[in-house]
Amino acid sequence: MADLRGGIDLGGTKIQTVVVDAAGTVLGEARRPTPTSGGPADVARELAEALREAAAAAGAKLEDLVGVGVGSPGDADGHTGVVSKARNLPGWEGSFPLGETLAEALGTKVRIGNDVQVAVEGEFRLGAGEEFDSLLGVWWGTGVGGGIVLDGKPWLGRGAAGEIGHVVVKRGGARCPCGRRSCMEAYAGRAAMEAEARRQHEDGQETDLFKLMHKHGKPRLTSGIWERAIDHGDDLAKELIERAIEALGTGVASACNVLDVEAVILGGGLGQRFGDRYREPLAAEMAKHLFVDDRPPALRVAELGDLGGAIGASLLVSR
Known about the structure:
The chain is α/β, with parallel strands linked by helices. It folds into 2 domains: about 5-120 and about 305-319, Nucleotidyltransferase, domain 5 (2-Layer Sandwich); about 130-305, ATPase, nucleotide binding domain (Nucleotidyltransferase, domain 5). It is about 40% helix and about 20% strand. It contains 11 helices and 13 strands. It has helices spanning about 40-55, 100-105, 115-125, 185-190, 190-200, 210-215, 225-230, 235-260, 270-275, 280-285, 310-315; strands at about 5-10, 15-20, 25-35, 65-70, 75, 85, 95, 110-115, 135-140, 145-150, 155, 265, 300. The strands form 3 sheets. Strands 3-2-1-4-8 form a 5-stranded mixed beta sheet, sandwiched between helices. A 5-stranded mixed beta sheet has the order 11-10-9-12-13, sandwiched between helices. A 3-stranded antiparallel beta sheet has the order 5-6-7, with no helix packed on it. Helix 1 crosses helix 2, helix 3 crosses helix 11 (about 310-315) and helix 7 crosses helix 8 (about 235-260). The chain is globular and about 55 Å long. The two termini are about 20 Å apart.
């Protein structure tokens, strides 16, 4: 089997893997939960096992792969394969040679990239961004990440471009999981939203969020739990989602004022779940802050779905 590539999307809650052909068609895939304890080496072992499962589903062997791409959170150095400060993962405060470790485990070359950037490039080449030459990807999930394509090429800056979740949306505002205050992620990241929901619930605010979480056997407030709560008329869930939309609109518009991109692609767990539902409210919040408000960027929801990050990661191999 020729020209097969592996792709791994390492997220805060799940590991998604695919094996694709030269055209990007998924031939096999597998998913595992991201470890919640241990450290980087434990995560790397799960990545390798998940890719083995995807290869088996594709009827292939690891030695059939020309390479594997990995989209990782944190500071992912594409040149060295080292991932640092992936704080959404267990015990990953420092640096870890993820590329080298996986290459040894899998017996093939491994390329590392930022998780959101590679997902955005997947949408640019194969999904919702195909018709555009420039775009900003906003991945709304456990955190809020971003990716940038300018003039048909990924823009990485000095390695950390696209961290839109950490633009300031309110001076002196809420504490972000990154440790700073006032970041967009402090209001719109799923983890921060859950923390705020718990705080208000403990202070006496009524909500069914946590009842629904336990009823459906979830360890955290997933995008599906947020949706169920809103559909049930839960006031706190609605309030926190609207608060997130306001923060997203403010931060995304500010980035668009600097970059003047043709399109904004909304992805991630919450983005996929709520993108169509809240497209108009998000566009309205953006319009409040866009300098050229009569010519807003197109606002699209990512099309590649749950496999988008892994498909995008597989494209790293062709570089």
